[in-house]
Amino acid sequence: MQKIALAEKFYLTTFLEIPQCQTAQHSTAQHSTAQHSTAQQEYDFQSLKLQQLKSVLPEIFSENQIDFEKFQQLFGDQIATSPDRYGLNWAGKSAAYQTLQSPTFKTLTPCVGESVNFDTTQNLFIEGENLDVLKALQKSYFNSVKMIYIDPPYNTGNDFVYNDSFAQSKAEYAEAVGDLDEQGKLKKAFVKNSKENGHYHSNWLNMMLPRLHLARNLLKDDGVIFISIDDNEQAQLKLLCDEVFGEENFVNAIAINMKNIAGASGGGEDKRLKKNVEILLIYVKSYESFNGFENVYEYREISELVEEYKQTGKSWKYTSVLVDKGNANYICSTVDGEGNEIKIYSRKGYQINSVSELSKLENLPEKEIYKKYATKIFQTAMPQSSIRSRVMKAVSELSIENDFFSIEYIPRSGRNKGILYEQFYKGDNFRLLAWLKDVSEEINGELYKKEMQGTFWDFVSETKNLTKEGNIPFPNGKKPVALLKRLLEMQDDKNCLVLDFFCGSGTTAHSVMKLNYEDNGKRRYICVQIPEILDPDDKDQKLAYELCNELNKPTNIAEISKERIRRAGKQISEQHKEIDTGFKVFKLTDSHFKQWQQPTKENLADQLEMFVEPLKKDAGPQAVLYEILLRLGLKLTAKVRWENGVFWVEEENITVALLLTDLQAVNFDEIFAKCPQKVVALDSLFANNDALKKNTELQMNDAGIAFVVI
């Protein structure tokens, strides 16, 4: 165990550097100085982690700082000090951690015109580079997400990896070829990561590390993350996830058959076997808090399955029907291993026919016989059961000549735990009647056989028409809705929040809406997609590019995602208007507040002007409103209404009033009457009138309302 590394994880800095909120009791000078400070105590994630560490290990602190000598005394030889120790390392790893800890000066700006049902929906689509988006979401969505699914670039050698400014190890070369601007920042948000690149794996890991850490922060304690990957990076990803989430929080690695061999890549030319399997890694935030998954089943329509068995020469076992179970005559009792009574009955006058016999007798197709007698169809089995052997022994001692028996007992475990249960046995060997109903389910009037799945899933049939799924042309990399629905169905919460920050064509959003339609759930989603430009010369992107042009939209993948969600939502809402098929669109932009910089001769006047007006000229009230919501830790789907010069924001049991436009329109008596927990006002609205500001503060204090000035 690397205890030092554990402690170092608590050194996380704030993710949102914003002007510090001050109560009005401060003087104007004090307020102005702090107003644009980059130090942000209220939103300091590092302080939060240090407080958590202090609550667990107070003895390692000295004067509110970690004393590593005390730490070493406490843990002794548990601290790994040898340079030769197990772990994943690569070029740029320390810089990746620096990027994780660096703040963002970005915010999320609403785009009402691109949204659907902006005022009522609980779904979000965020357009922008996902590293900054994840940082922007930290305060509002910390410990809020039940399930994350991501399908990141697989690093095949032709993929574009998201390119953070720190990751360019050959900065001089990048500047020489024009990839860096005058400030040394990369012009492109993502670059091609070819296998000839000497930092091929490192670049990909540098991209993934900070994003996974930020994603983990957003997960609830019982939350789960699913990550699709192939064999280019699955080995590295497993080790990286062990580091980020903890090896003890690994759940499963699922092998998913995505293609028939004929359509798979590889083989032949490069001497490898055909690649038709992808990997799905599953981690939880806390295995102790994790409630486990719902059972996973594959469903096959019975009549199709029977026909397939006939065509392939397989033996279909469920062919007998207990038309009449006859009369039960009690003969004796025995006990199970815990001493609970098992009553045994001899059966007379029973009737058993085959499915084919009944089909002829009743002049019905076998498909209809399966539907009509679904609860009475069985096969026989010889389970290694202590109950079966006890029943056989008890009956043999009575020398009863009969070939059909039943028992009644109350199981203490298993599917029928605590319920009076009836079992049937046939023949001299007491073969157990195993019912089709126990392995099948009726869905929309059709009978389906369900088979419990392990860690190999077959989705070949779901990928055959994948290019058309969602009614948008985007063939490369699209995941089937059936796969995402399965992951959603594994969760024990139908009202959970789902996050996908490599959203691609929008399959996750589509799947959430579709499953909500099918089971009346109220799942919500946050989908994040960078506006990656579509290439009209790429055969896999050409049709998507043309669609964007037809719609008069920018030619990027984010537009394809939004269009798919609109189309899928429209189709679903036509059948079920109660389902939330809307989504709020937000775009990653620079903060609407001016950023304080160290004053110089040249910029002193501009910096002083920030004390008078902290907002940028193009900052609209709604944009400022949502930036402040993120600062306050309120969700972007909080209920907002405009009333008499006040933005009223409600989220669960929290009410906040925001004064962002003109104090003349504000009726303060209404605010006092409604008594929100907090009132937030822009300092510039007071026009340097300290008396008005102080009087407002005193009135708020008298009313028991927290008053914050920005």
TrEMBL record:
Q: Which reaction does it catalyse?
A: a 2'-deoxyadenosine in DNA + S-adenosyl-L-methionine = an N(6)-methyl-2'-deoxyadenosine in DNA + S-adenosyl-L-homocysteine + H(+)
Entry-linked Pfam families: N6_N4_Mtase (PF01555)
Q: List, alphabetically, the PROSITE patterns matched.
A: N6_MTASE (PS00092)
Which keywords fit this entry according to its UniProt record?
Answer: Methyltransferase, S-adenosyl-L-methionine, Transferase
- State the SUPFAM superfamilies in the record: S-adenosyl-L-methionine-dependent methyltransferases (SSF53335)
Which Gene Ontology MF annotations are present? DNA binding; N-methyltransferase activity; site-specific DNA-methyltransferase (adenine-specific) activity
Q: Name one GO biological process term.
A: methylation
Q: What is its EC number?
A: 2.1.1.72
Name the domain of life: Bacteria
- The EC class name is transferase
Q: The DNA methylase N-4/N-6 domain covers which part of the protein?
A: 145-404, 450-530
Similarity comment: Belongs to the N(4)/N(6)-methyltransferase family.
Recorded protein name is: site-specific DNA-methyltransferase (adenine-specific)
Q: Say which species the protein is native to.
A: Pasteurella bettyae CCUG 2042
Q: Provide the organism lineage as a comma list.
A: Bacteria, Pseudomonadati, Pseudomonadota, Gammaproteobacteria, Pasteurellales
